[in-house]
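As a warm-up, study this chain.
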Amino acid sequence: MNLNVAWFGVLAFTLAVYAVLDGFDLGLGTIHLLLGRTREERTRLIDSIGPVWNGNEVWLLAAGGSMVVAFPNLYAASFSGFYLALMLVLWLLLLRGLGIEFRHQIHHPMWEDAWDVVFAGASVLLALLFGVAFGNVLHGVPFEAPGEFRGSFAVLFNPFSLVAGGLSVATLALHGACWAALKMDGPLQARARRFAAVLWIAAAVLLAVMIAVSFAVRPEFTKNFRVQPLLLVLPLGALFR
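Now compare it with the structure written out below.
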């Protein structure tokens, strides 16, 4: 096997594991203020991810480390061309952590409510940015032959990437609602199940829109599936699991 292909597999694996493991606490933060009607309910929701949220983000660090080792040109182009976007991601990750940790330092309604808003807002924006980044990977961005990015921050927010961002928010919110339905009980669990039912429909609709616009923007994106039919196992497995 080609070494680059092997490293690409490692990078894809670490990103996929990060999406699965950190997806539920990121999604829980996205619906945190809507799902938790009272301060006590919001405390229960945050406590349910308290033991694991920090460890889940290690997979994102592993993905970044793999990129540095295996694809230094990609790493250099990404961090120079998308500096502002990456700084936003880092600040949002930091604010999510502060929202979780600082909330418990002072037991005052105003203090707890303020950090709840920080935690929820950072989670929504982070889910959106991750989707926008994925959308731009599929759409393509203006790079010159030496690997230099030619564009602006606004270029990243094209209609295609915004659809991907909406799909990311809906999917991660669905993941968080399922986590809450699994971990909570009583009225909070029932509410989480209702959220999951609505978000499942939203995610399915946005996925259909995403596939439709993909044919318009990148009609050749199915070429790899025709060349390597075994790759169809991945999307079909996701649909029918």
